Amino acid sequence: MPDPARTYDVLVAGGGNAALCAAITARRAGASVLIVESAPKAFRGGNSRHTRNFRSMHEQPTDVLTEAYPEEEYWQDLLKVTGGQTNEQLARHAIRTSATCAPWMVANGVRFQPSLGGTLHLSRTNAFFLGGGKALVNAYYRTAAQLGVEIVYDTEARDLEIRDGRFHSATVANGGAERKVSARTLVAASGGFESNIPWLKDAWGPAADNFLIRGTPYNMGRVLRVLLDRGAQQIGDPTQCHAVAIDARSPKFDGGICTRVDCVSLGIVVNKHAKRFYDEGEDFWPKRYAIWGRLVAGQPDQIGYSIIDSKAVGKFMPPVFPPVKAGSIGELARALELDPAALEDTVRRFNAAVRPGTFNHAALDDCVTAGLEPPKTHWARPIDTPPFFGYPLRPGITFTYLGVAVNERAQMLMSDGKPAANVFAAGEIMAGSILGKGYLAGFGMTIGTVFGRIAGEEAARNARA
Amino acid sequence: MPERDLFGQAEFNMQVCNACRYCEGFCAVFPAMERRLTFAKADLRYLANLCHSCGACYYACQYAPPHEFNVNVPRNFAQVRAETYRRYAWPGFLASLFERNGAVVSLATAAALALFLLGTFYYQAPAVVFAAHPGGDFYKVIPHNVMVWTFGLVALYVLLALTIGFVRFWRETGEPMHEFVVPAALGRGLLDALHLKNLKGGGDGCPYPDEKPSHARRVYHHLTFYGFMFCFAATCVGTIYHYAFGWKAPYALTSLPVVLGTIGGIGLVAGPLGLLWLKSKRDPDTDEPTQFGMDAGFLWLLLLTSLTGLALLALRETAAMGTLLAVHLGVVLGLFLTLPYGKFVHAVYRVAALVRAALERSRPMPNVTFE
User: Fold this and answer.
1) Residue from B12, B15, B23, B24 to probe the interface with A (highest A Cβ count within 10 Å)
2) What is the pTM of this model?
3) Residue A419 forms contact with B (CB below 8 Å)
4) What is the nearest CA distance from A305 to chain B, expressed in angstroms?
5) pLDDT digits over B26-37, tens only?
6) Can you give the pLDDT at residue B287?
7) Is residue A163 part of a domain?
8) CB of B327 within 8 A of CB of B129?
């Protein structure tokens, strides 16, 4: 437990990428820093432990990035995915600063590598962490500890004393024991509320009981809730979350990257009534995977089934669980506990609607259906070559969009639009300002790194003033 | 999550890893894994022998215990390797020697030691054994022919047992025998073994004995291996001197065999000591406790070999030479006898696995196109 008699310069709530970037930066600037991480050590790091890369602007090829990724293209990519729900000033600041992050990350123990097998589409824009996000988190914790940052695990910031926009102390809980921690500044870097099922139910109703959470059960959004209650300016849609379709057999929490199922565009997806409900071939999978969580969430009992035949084997990243396999569509339906006649009918009608074309999964090909509702507009091939395979799908919640507003100095804004005196925010808790909707691979880590470092620097300066 | 048996967990681990791939940059295991969609026992045995048990993937793993997936590749693959050592052992009935291997190695060494000591005192008068021989002429105590026949026969047996183990391993991978000698792959595999590329952890070294990356294990392994090779070279040079040139041992301190042996001996002291020291500090989370005896037994035996060898060299002109010679040769015999039934076999299967991995890398990616 932290020392109650002490007043820290900087209290960092949270223990993921943004929190660590803030803590290391503040400590290097001479501040005394305490990190309170709600997870136990084994599950530390919030969602960062499941990340794998960092979207980085660059004008020239680097050791791990190909070609160039200039500011304007980066900004346009962001504009596209958010549909304009972004803040150009903050976004461009994050984009520009991303170009300078890699050396700092390396100096603090992070190692990069070229893009992983199966991720060639990201080799130009995203720098991959050697060993992934947990390796990055481990490196930052080692660096932080070496620098003398105090770190407590299993400790949640439960309440914050904030009066007239000024932070005074936090009440932290470790097991049953509560204690007050005084600090001159607060960096809120404790993420969203994706693991908080009751909160998710506020927006989604009972359907949220069938959601799987891709991160640890510790992302409860407690600090976010308290900050909003204490008058912070709210940003982002409170009802929205980033949801992808993942294997329904995944653990309730913390399934991470490996639970995704990447064969949707190669076959059809049906609901529990064995009916199709959306165009599986609308666009390339990397551009579409993030809408399928919501699509499945909208189906009865929040479940779907991706059905492929043996032509698709080896054409997608292998999922973690083996598929349900059968020699006929009827048999597959029985194994998936679907109505065999209904699935046979759906597949028959789909196969009959498929027009001749030249299949090419690497392009938006001309394999389409005709006279079918919903249509499949690319990669439509008859499902006719046994064995047949099925993967059950559920919505997998990655993160939430609700957050607190900040300015370019990572100062948290109060509801009157004025910055709080000594509260800074970084990472997912403020990402909604920039990423109001959709997702851009590796951009969460960019926001966390850029604003984490700014928050750390500003907090250290503020504490000395 | 269901309880899984050894290969069930190994297969599950590889399915998790193949769907995740974050550890791809650490070592050869993960790129080899990515060439597969399913993992039969033969695949798992090959991948397990490719694993250098460095621990990098364990600390980086989102799915490591206490996560319910319970992915601990270093430990699981250590267990699979232990199974393969028994499986490929020749003759098969000696496979059980890999169980409680520390005790086996100790007993074998004690027996070999006793054999040499008793033999020496039985055949040689005490006056000869306990005399100081000018120049350290050890053939006066144990004749050259006795040494050659003893170690020649044992060496042939060891070579046969290891070769059969290698053939069994290679056959199970499904590769034809002639593929092993494809020059490019063989060269690449040997090179990877000789500079321990896969203990570099992608650059900074591997997290051994604990979470912090370090090159310590690589350095100590190099000292051990190259120490061993220097000693071997000393023996070879001595043999050539003896038979080709008729130059009989003992050789001068500045002679090639003695210099090579001394350098090798020093490496074989520092290397095993360092590895034992690291092992004593290893994070129990990544270690496989049932293998401690096998690993430590081999290291102690190497250490005893070099220490007795160096002592023999230092005291070769004194009255202690005779006894030390018997002791040293006893230890070396113990080492030789247990080579096919102890930690040493890892070298055979590791090199074979590295050559196979190089061979696979030289071929186009099979059946897996994701982009």
Assistant:
1) B24
2) 0.95
3) no
4) 19
5) 999 999 999 999
6) 87
7) yes
8) no
| Contact between A227 and A160 (Cβ < 8 Å) | yes
- Determine the distance in angstroms separating the CA of B17 from the nearest CA of chain A, rounded to an integer: 8
Residue B255 main-chain phi, psi, to 5 deg: -75, 160
Burial class (CB in 10 A: 0-12, 13-18, 19+), A341: exposed
Q: Does A96 touch chain B (CB under 8 A)?
A: no
Q: Say if residue A382 is in the same domain as residue A407.
A: no
CB contact under 8 A, A135 and B368: no
- Same domain, yes or no, for A138 and A210? yes
ipTM: 0.95
Mean pLDDT of B132-143: 92
C-alpha span between B15 and A433 (Å, rounded): 37
Q: For residue B175, what is the DSSP state?
A: -
Percent of chain A with pLDDT over 90: 92
- Distance (Å, rounded) from C-alpha A67 to C-alpha A59? 8
Number of structural domains in chain A: 2
Do A266 and A210 belong to one domain? no
Distance from CA of B219 to the nearest CA of A (A): 22
**Interfacial A residues in 42-61 facing B (CB < 8 Å):** 42-43, 49-50, 52
Pinpoint the alpha helices (H) of A162-204. Answer: 197-204
How far apart are alpha carbons B358 and B265 in whole angstroms? 32
Q: Which of A396, A413, A436 is the last residue of a domain?
A: A396
- Residue A300 belongs to a domain with what CATH number? 3.90.700.10
Q: CB under 8 Å to A199, separation ≥6 — which residues?
A: A193, A221, A225
For residue B368, pLDDT over 70 is answered with no
Contacts of B34 in chain A (CB under 8 A): 117-118
Residue A1, in any domain of the structure: no
Q: Looking at the structure, do residues A361 and A423 belong to the same domain, yes or no?
A: no
The band of B371, judged by pLDDT with boundaries at 50, 70 and 90, is: very low
Indicate if A153 and A212 belong to the same structural domain: yes
> By the 8 A CB rule, do A9 and A464 touch?
yes
In the block, tokens 């959004």 appear at: A221
Residue A440 belongs to domain with CATH number: 3.50.50.60
Residue among A210, A252, A214 at smallest CA distance from A399: A214
Give the residue from A396, A414, A443 where a domain finishes: A396
Task: Indicate if A182 and A297 belong to the same structural domain.
Answer: no
Q: Answer yes or no: do A377 and A425 share one domain.
A: no
Could you tell me the residue range of the domain that residue A78 belongs to?
7-238+401-464
A2 lies in some domain: no
With an 8 Å Cβ cutoff, are A117 and B31 in contact?
A: yes
Q: Within 10 A of B17 (CB to CB), how many other CB atoms are there?
A: 26
Whether residue A373 sits in one domain with residue A313: yes
Residue A52 lies in a domain: yes
The residue behind tokens 């589409």 is A121
In the chain, the amino acid numbered B66 is P
Closest to B235 in 3D by CA, of B324, B163, B329? B329
What single-letter amino acid sits at B99? Answer: E
Token code pair at residue A305 = 């089934």
